[in-house]
Amino acid sequence: MDFEKQSYWRDRFAREESFEWLVTSSDLMAILDPLLASLSLGPDARICHLGFGTSDLQNHFRARGFSAITNLDYEPLACERGRALEVTRFGDSRMEFRVADVTQLPADLGAFDLIIDKSTVDAVACGGDDMVLRMGKGVERCLKPGAVWVSLSYSSARFSDERLPFDVEVLHKFPVPKMSPTEPDVFHWCYLLRRRAPGVRLGRAELEGTDRVSGETCGSGFQYERESQTTMERATVS
To answer: Please, one GO biological process term (predicted)?
Structure first.
């Protein structure tokens, strides 16, 4: 599947109104709430959600009192879906929904206190390491001093490229539910990225892990996630 191509997402969003990649927004927010408290972000803190698609993550930030939320996606249909989800939840639409390519962030975007993506970096990675680097450099330019980028990925080696201008730590590992006790442990990785101090480089070995999808192509990782979620949905129904 061509996850890095706009045509894929246009076709998908034409028939999809809501979908959460990797983990639910509620589960992700349970990890983010302590971080938000530690950052001492006020209600006017600027938050940017990259590649929001049909996720409702931005609604969880609004429900916590944040008012300056910018949601970016390069497929216009995502903006329609995002506004509809906000109206359904709150009765009105106050957040900014903007068409933009996360590998070419607009110059007038401004700076943010928190930037977050929920597996958008995995889709970008389908275009190769250079595309992830372009995304990373754009994010760095849009971070206020002391601000952070939180990124959710299926890969334990997503940010192992030494060219990326960030210090990277694992904020949390979400275990993927098993269909059988004999299946190996698989995790989804929540990363915390801060602008790297000048002259500091982080080696690949310091970031790589042993989860099953590391080293696979991005398409196979997405397909694994899609099949896993479909299987879980069927199990819940039955």
So the answer is: methylation
